[in-house]
Design a protein that fits this description.
Strand order of the largest sheet: 5-4-3-8-7-6
CATH class of the largest domain: Alpha Beta
GO molecular function: DNA binding; DNA-binding transcription factor activity
Protein name: IclR family transcriptional regulator
Strand content: 15-25%
Mean pLDDT: 89
Order of helices and strands: HHHEEHHEEEHHHHEEEH
Structural class: alpha+beta
Number of helices: 10
CATH superfamily of the largest domain: GAF domain
Pfam families: HTH_IclR (PF09339), IclR_C (PF01614)
CATH architecture of the largest domain: 2-Layer Sandwich
Largest sheet: 6 strands, antiparallel
Number of domains: 2
Shape: elongated
Helix content: 40-55%
Keywords: DNA-binding, Transcription, Transcription regulation
């Protein structure tokens, strides 16, 4: 059982020991994903069992933990899930991305859009239009095959391996690939993650270049920011790599607005 890095081991300006202890407990039980005894939890967060007894009782009484009557082991209830879903996460992403994306579109004079995974497809949840009269625009609510979009490939690249393989096993296009082509596709995802961004010609339309960066929460991408540029609009004075740098800063601002670890 891996020990969780407690808040005392991080650089925190202000401490609230009781609250921190409770959060350590919730985060550790969530990470383990199975019922745990008081001793298991104490060991996992580097505390004595007696130190966490009152906190466990409190969390159980408030409905955040469930305690098995026979084994005495604790597991998380659905209370945190219900609290987090009182507000749509998509609405939160839209609000957090609005001003950063508008600033980016104004800076590079190109439209940009934000995509997330939805039922194994890529769905556009937010967009900011270019301030110039002629520019490519991807409408909110549009859905695309995940394997045929730059955004989809970036999201796949940052998934945990098991989760990615499960999604690909369900994907009709991937299943039609011969083994060597499947291996090549997965290897390309590793290259995308190593680069930290993806610049490519569109698989869905000729004459379009996509510049895509992940919106991160720690080591996981929760969304992708993409600038789709008509090839005839590419200018020598602003390279695609420079656009990628600006897009990464915009993605970082979105993560910060969402309260995530960028």
């Amino acid at each position: 059982m891996a020990k969780k890095k407690t808040v005392e081991e991080t650089d925190v300006k202000y401490h609230a020991p009781a609250l921190e202890k409770g959060l350590d407990i919730l985060e550790f039980i969530s990470a383990e994903g199975r019922p745990l005894s008081q001793a298991d939890i104490a060991q996992g967060i580097d505390k004595n069992p007696s130190e966490i007894y009152r906190m466990l009782v409190c969390l159980e009484q408030r409905g955040y933990l469930l305690r098995d009557e026979i084994s005495g082991k604790y597991k998380q209830s659905l209370k945190l899930y219900n609290l987090s879903h009182r507000h749509s996460p998509i609405d939160e992403i839209r609000r957090a991305s609005h001003y950063p994306m508008d600033d980016l579109a104004d800076s590079i004079k190109q439209s940009c859009h934000l995509g997330v995974l939805y039922q194994d497809k890529l769905i556009v949840v937010s967009q900011s239009r270019s301030p110039v009269p002629i520019a490519l625009s991807i409408e909110e609510g549009s859905t695309f095959p995940v394997m045929l979009t730059a955004s989809g490939k970036v999201l796949l690249a940052y998934m945990e391996e098991n989760e990615r393989l499960e999604l690909l096993k369900r994907n009709t296009l991937f299943k039609e690939y011969p083994l060597r082509k499947q291996q090549k596709f997965i290897a390309s995802l590793q290259e995308i993650k190593a680069d930290g961004h993806y610049i490519t010609g569109s698989d869905l339309a000729k004459g379009i270049m996509d510049v895509t960066v992940p919106v991160m929460n720690a080591d996981r991408a929760i969304a992708c920011l993409t600038i789709a540029i008509l090839s005839v609009q590419l200018k020598e004075e602003v390279s695609l790599e420079e656009i990628a740098v600006k897009a990464k800063e915009t993605a970082r601002r979105i993560s910060v607005n969402l309260g995530l670890d960028a």
